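Hi V.,

You were right to ask for the full record rather than a summary. Here it is.
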Amino acid sequence: MRPSPAALIASLVAAFALGGCHSRYIAATVTNRTADTLSSIEVDYPSASFGTNTLAPGATYSYRFKIIGSGPTAVLWTDAAHHDHKVAGPELREDDEGSLAVTIGSGDTPTWDLHLIHQGS
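Predicted structure:
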């Protein structure tokens, strides 16, 4: 007896669901720990970038991205005195997954906190 087309489709859907189709991504945050509003905040990562026009004191901007390729990260911003900053961050690879937190404080160097989930390929 042949299974019906509906049964075949249901089996395929179940196989994909159980097969663990999973898209790897980085959950990123940029936090302003200065006393002033920052502007033109941009985070560069391999093959793309994200950002926001302004970030108030104490505020956090969140973004999720998929890495295509490998390479360095960097954060760029303009402070309240209209000085531009660019600081290099950690390297990312195409199979990386996890979280990246960038905290911009009162100094010229932000802190980077990268936590990767290592999975077997």
